[in-house]
Known about the structure:
CATH class of the largest domain: Mainly Alpha
Number of domains: 2
Oligomer: single chain
Number of helices: 7
Helix content: 40-55%
Strand order of the largest sheet: 1-2-3-5-4
Amino acid sequence: MVEKIIQQGAEAVLIKKGEMLLKRRVKKGYRIPEMDEKIRKLRTRSEAKLLEKAGKIVPVPKVFKVDEKAKEIDMEFIEGLKLSESLDDMKNWEEVCFAIGENIAKLHDAGIIHGDLTTSNMIWNSPQLNAAAAVDRGSLRSLKLLHHHPEPRGASVSKDAGGGGSKKAEGCESKNVECGKLYFIDFGLGFANGRVEDKAVDLYLIKEALEAKHFKRFEEYFAAVLEGYKASKNWNEVFDRLKKVEKRGRYKQNY
């Protein structure tokens, strides 16, 4: 099977193997070898468990195999558009951003903190994209041209816990309206049993990411994210804490 390195990060290398993705944690030369071994093993195990738990709530890559000795996770490769490259070109950006907030809310209500909420760790997958990818899997970037059909007036919000999409019209496939799924990837910095403070910081991270990468419209994007997050049973409490986190962030920037 042909293997292709698609990303080399500070913590791990991502290798595409057919329809699978292998995530291999790399050694850190600045650590004591025994400590490095322990840390990479622990983080590999933790991420795999978090993916399996999150996968019962929102769309994430399926875990096929965990090799703690090799510090590797074999998981599903998700076809689609990475939002860091595509969000600004999407006509249905409001639907997508609403889904971001809704998915975060579902994770938070289950006590899961993603820990690295940026649009680089989000993929929009849809039937249209899958059909196009089957014709040309080598040029996903060109698929931007296919997006998107505007959301019809009167669209209803999906309450499907694992759907990953939102504000969809009923029977959208037959009406030729985009019915996509939003996938969260890379739970390497995530953890369980998050507190209100952790949830607020998660939201602050996506706000900062939107401002840094999509600064022209980040306020509109983040407003839609917050609207989607209201699906959380504790959204009021988290929003109140978010205001305090934002004040701390502004203080650090001005210091």
